[in-house]
Amino acid sequence: MKLRAFAVAVSVLALVALAGTGVAAAQPTIPGEVSTQSAAFSQPPQFTGYFQCFNGHVFADFTDPDGDDTRLNATLAVWRASAGGWTLHPMTNTGDTVHGVFFFIKLSDHGINAADVDWYAVGATDQAGDWSGWSMADRNCKLL
Length: 144
Hints:
Elements: H1 2-19, E1 46-54, E2 57-63, E3 73-80, E4 85-90, E5 92-93, E6 103-106, E7 119-125, E8 135-138
Antiparallel strand pairs: 1-2, 2-6, 3-4, 3-7, 5-6, 7-8
């Protein structure tokens, strides 16, 4: 149990470090590193707790309590020891559908084999630039 807690802590620290490296042009910023709050009343996107891996795809759901869900941008971070750490990948926003707005990514489109993934993290940014923070899952897509 202590080893798992240590691994999660190291993973979170790696995500924080990655957020400041400029790896991706549109990468999110971890709250506390640089404030992205655009207004005192603005609320960041909220992770709904929906995170699923199915048939080489990853699905997640966020909502924007004070904005338009169709304008959210979600990012999937994937930890693979074989890749040397975290990589960031934009998720597709479905737009408004009969199922509502949700986000997905086909791992193979990003050169990712699900069998090589050790950890997942997902987060979203709204149109005001507010950041949800990271929600993490293990290699079996079980939320931590």
